[in-house]
Design goal:
With about 280 residues, the protein is mainly α. It is built from twelve helices and two strands; from the N terminus they run H-H-H-H-H-H-H-H-H-H-E-E-H-H. The chain has a two-stranded antiparallel ribbon with strand order 1-2. The protein is flat and about 75 Å long.
């Protein structure tokens, strides 16, 4: 994606060349140690905006390092807000308050990361979509916060990550379900058994799997709330796991390519010996 220099005033004053934004204020550690995380999240986003404006005005043409750092902070904020503990809930409420103050509009289905990116990078839809799409790929692949810049570099940059994600959207629901079935052969994460679960299972509705609807509790455990035996729900869950099948397909294709290369090498050696 071509990067354009955006002229925008800072929310807390103009930045000069020598004005270095306070990067510490954007860290999750700073948020978590504040007495009022609900308020702190707005302050952190304002600091990220300062960083972004400084990058656009002084560094944009030379390097993507600061962009990756900004996205790393957005990614870290998203992770901190994604839990069920008191602090995560307070951070989400603080973000909602910040969004209300700025007058931004989001659909109910908008991912949390998209909201954060829009708050930091403004209302340029094309830019926000590109960055949030790339970050959603990182979330899906469970990239560690510290590894995010390396992840983007290894993948060929933000635009390449976004392009690969967009290409995957072209698959039909049926294609995604077929790819997602690979997860049924993956390692077992955990086994649960109880009389209550058994009573909620219907032998009259035997699909290739069931969906156990659960919530993550404050103590880190998962509480199963419902056994869902719906063909549509199961297919949706399998489609959501399509990346597992895609990874298996890529691994299989790579193995076949390596096998073909080795076969060609052996054939060439045999031809030389016969000559």
């Amino acid at each position: 994606m071509s990067q354009e220099k955006v002229k925008e005033s800072s929310p807390v004053g103009e930045l000069k060349n020598s004005d270095a934004p306070n990067k510490f204020a954007t860290s999750v550690g700073y948020l978590l140690t504040r007495s009022n995380p609900e308020r702190a999240v707005g302050e952190a986003i304002d600091q990220l905006i300062l960083e972004r404006v400084h990058w656009e005005n002084h560094e944009l043409a030379n390097s993507n390092e600061t962009l990756y750092s900004l996205l790393q902070h957005c990614y870290s904020l998203n992770n901190a807000m994604s839990g069920t503990d008191f602090t995560a809930k307070a951070l989400r409420k603080g973000l909602a308050n910040y969004i209300g103050q700025k007058g931004y509009q989001f659909k109910e289905s908008s991912p949390l990361i998209s909201k954060i990116v829009k708050c930091v990078f403004g209302v340029d839809r094309r830019r926000v979509n590109a960055y949030s799409s790339a970050l959603r790929v990182a979330i899906a692949e469970q990239v560690a916060v510290m590894n995010l810049p390396k992840f983007f570099k290894d993948k060929g940059g933000i635009e390449e990550v976004r392009r690969q994600a967009t290409a995957g959207r072209g698959k039909t629901m049926k294609d995604k379900v077929e790819l997602g079935r690979a997860v049924l052969e993956s390692d077992v994460l955990a086994k649960v058994q109880s009389d209550t679960l058994s009573k909620n299972f219907s032998n009259q509705s035997l699909e290739e799997g069931v969906v156990l609807l659960a919530t993550r509790e404050d103590d880190g455990s998962f509480a199963i709330r419902r056994v869902v035996q719906s063909n549509a729900a199961v297919k949706s869950a399998l489609a959501a796991c399509a990346s597992v099948g895609q990874d298996k397909e890529r691994a299989k294709q790579f193995a076949e390519e390596q096998k073909a290369i080795e076969a060609d090498r052996l054939a060439a050696q045999a031809a030389l010996k016969a000559a």
